[in-house]
Amino acid sequence: MKLQEFVLNYKDDVVKSIQESVRIKSVQEAPLEGMPFGEGPAKALEHMLDLGKKLGFEVENFDNYAGHIDFGVGSDEEMIGILGHVDVVPEGKGWDHPPYEAKIVDGKMYDIKDEIYHQSNFKSMKIRTAQSEEISDIGSIKEYWTEANSSEKRRKDLSTYVLVALFPLASTLFAISFGIVTYRYEKGMVYVGTFGVLFGYFTLIMLFSSKPAFAIPLIFFVFLLAGILLFKAKIMRRY
Fold this sequence. Notes:
51% helix, 7 helices, alpha+beta, two-stranded antiparallel sheet
C-alpha cells in the first residue's frame, strides 16, 4: 500500500486531531502556577502529549516548558529529533475564517488568515503558505534565474552561487603557492595569506553581488590573475 493511500485511511482521525489542536487558543499569556507561558500553551502541550500517548508513544512533560513524544525508548541506536511547537502568535484581526476553528472549505482546512499563513490540502498531502497549490510560479531553473533581471535578491544570489562555485578554481594557485613555498620557507605568512584570500574574495562578493555581469568576471579573473602572479613569484622563481 502506498503511503498516501495509508494516510487517507486515517483521514477522519487526522482531521479531527488537527482541529482539536487548533481549537485550543495557545497564545502566550501571563504565567500561572505550573504554567510558565499561561493556560493556553499548557493546554495545547498537554493535548499533544495525550495524543502521542494514545498513539503508543512514550511521552514526558517538562513542567509545561516543553515535552517529548518518543518512539523506540531504550534503543542503543542514534536518536533522530524533530523540533516543533504547539503555541501560536496572537491572531490579530481581519480573518476570513474563524482563527480557532480549523474550518474546512472546499476540501481545504484553514487554520489562520488565508492569503498569508497555512492552508492544507489533505487529498494531495500538501501544505502551503498561500492558497495556490504551487510553491512558486517559477517552473524551471531557467525561469528562476531569469528573475535576476528584475529582482535584486536574485541577482545577488546568482553572483554569490557562481563565484562560490568558481572559488576553488580561482584560488588553486594561491593554495599551491602557500602550501608548497610559504609553509616551507615562510611559515609565519601561511595563515595571513590564506585568510587574506578568503577575506578579499568574499568581501568583493558582498560589495558587488548586485551586479552579476560585472562582479562574476571581475572577481574571478582578478583572483585568478593574482594567483598566477603569486605562483610565478613563489614557485617559478624558486623551481
